[in-house]
Predict the 3D structure of the following.
Amino acid sequence: MGKLGVIGGMGPLATELLYRRIIEKTDAKCDQEHIDMIILSHASMPDRTKAIKSGDTHEVFTALLSDAKMLENNGADAIAIPCNTSHFFWKPLQAEMEIPVINMVRKTVERIKKNNENIKKVGLLATDGTLYTGIYKHECEKLEIECVYPDEETQKQVMNIIYNRIKAGDNGSPEDFTKIDEFLKNAGCEAAILACTELSCFSQIHSLGSFYVDALDVLCEEAILMCGGKVKATADKK
């Protein structure tokens, strides 16, 4: 089987969650049936949202490329980045690599369309940086899906959960999510994407239900398959 390289640390909890979910989602009866992984937790990576919104992205891209090359040079056959905002850099990063960098954004939108070919409207919960880049909106439009952004007040609550709760080491509470859930459903969304790995951590603690499609789950399953492993049947149906 192939070896997975992970550019992690953005944030550390999300990287730990990716590792655990890959293990849990792999159909394996012994150690040797799990995929090999090289995990780089680059927690000192500059903030992606700040870099993108300021337009000063050179430092972040240079660091991502250096990490990706290090993983490639150490035998990785594919790379996963458990950070949605970092996928703003996916195209130039992939152009410099000899191995595939899994596009979590594209694979997540494709999964939603595959699960419901008639879906028309999907909500997006992400950092300000991810919303600003339009990376999810672009992938949704390619499949004729309307991508709904939160309004200003709802987005402030999304960012509060990401930065002031999960990144700060606070689990938060289900009440933190109430107004977000109400906004999405009142907007007519048929599903919503958890497009920030801190929201994946929040969902791990406070189950949000099948309405929410976790991009980290999609990344985990794609990574297992790309490296020659098998996804458990229950996970494959998600």
User: Anything to note?
Assistant: The mean pLDDT is 95. Strands lie at 3-8, 36-41, 78-80, 121-125, 146-148, 191-194, 212-214. The chain is about 50% helix and 15% strand.
